[in-house]
Amino acid sequence: MPDNYFVRYLPLLIHFGIALALAAALVVLSQILGRHRYSQAKFQPYECGMAPVGDARERFSVKFYMVAMLFILFDVEAVFLYPWAVLVKELKLFGFFEMLVYVAIVLAGLFYIWKKGILDWGEAEFSRRGLRVPDTEFFLIAGRGTGGTSKAETATAGEKRS
């Protein structure tokens, strides 16, 4: 065994060095050998294939943030299942019942937020706030939808409603 403690980490350091050098080489070669055709469209921000329209400081409903926080909360709670799964044979019946209590508490929280309406994204929620319910006509007109309605029928249905 080597006398120096850090010698054991030399292969890892070499690995990181090679990875960093390869990444830098690919970026530099791309810059040198690649074609550069600048246009106004390339300098516009790209957001999910949609044209950027309106103000970037648009207000969002609290629902978006609530769902994001709840996702993180339940995701973190699910992480606690992994150590239990590793030790389930050693914990035997006691560990099983402890996990049942834990899952019951998590499910109680889920049912609570469900009954509070935080997960409700239905038509009633939109109409109560005076918002128009999103429809799928845009996607059908664009030819991305499914179903038996043709593009022309959908376009005329959209014109009738307006």
How would you explain this protein's 3D organization?
The chain is mainly α and 162 residues long. 62% of the residues lie in helices and 0% in strands. The protein has 6 helices and no strands. It has helices at 10-33, 62-79, 81-116, 123-128, 137-141, 151-161. Helix 2 (62-79) runs antiparallel to helix 3. The longest helix has 36 residues, at 81-116. It is flat. The N and C termini lie far apart (80 Å).
Which bin fits the share of residues in helices? 55-70%
**How would you classify the helix and strand content by structural class?**
mainly alpha
Summarize the main sheet.
none
Report the order of strands and helices: HHHHHH
| Count of helical regions | 6
Overall mean pLDDT stands at 76
Query: Low-confidence parts lasting 5 or more residues at pLDDT below 50?
Result: 133-162
How much is the radius of gyration in Å? 27 Å
The backbone outline, from C-alpha atoms, is: flat
Number of strands: 0
N- and C-termini, Cα separation: 80 Å
Strand content: under 5%
